[in-house]
Amino acid sequence: MTAVVEADGLVRQFGSYRAVDGLDLQIGRSEVFGLLGPNGAGKTTTIRMLATLLAPTAGSARVCGFNVVGQAKEVR
Fold it and tell me: Whole-angstrom Cα distance, residue 13 to residue 2?
């Protein structure tokens, strides 16, 4: 399976608060994926990082093979 969305150790920290802490994720082509959790679990922060609207503090993420930090234009 070729992953279309990948995250490896994705972290986003706001001061001392870690909204996303070491997320590993692989979503393949044609897969349906749900991101569930309570308020404050980091769902919106994760989507914002994958959409290049927020830079990760650590780790890496790729969408269709493009890095969300270094290739934001291609991701969009």
Answer: 29
Predicted confidence (pLDDT) per residue in 10-55, tens digit: 999 999 999 999 999 999 999 999 999 999 999 999 999 999 999 9
Residue type, 18: R
Distance CA 59, CA 6 (A): 11
Q: Do residues 35 and 43 make contact, with C-beta atoms less than 8 angstroms apart?
A: yes
DSSP string, the chain: --EEEEEEEEEEEETTEEEEEEEEEEEETT--------TTSSHHHHHHHHTTSS--SEEEEEETTEETTTTHHHH-
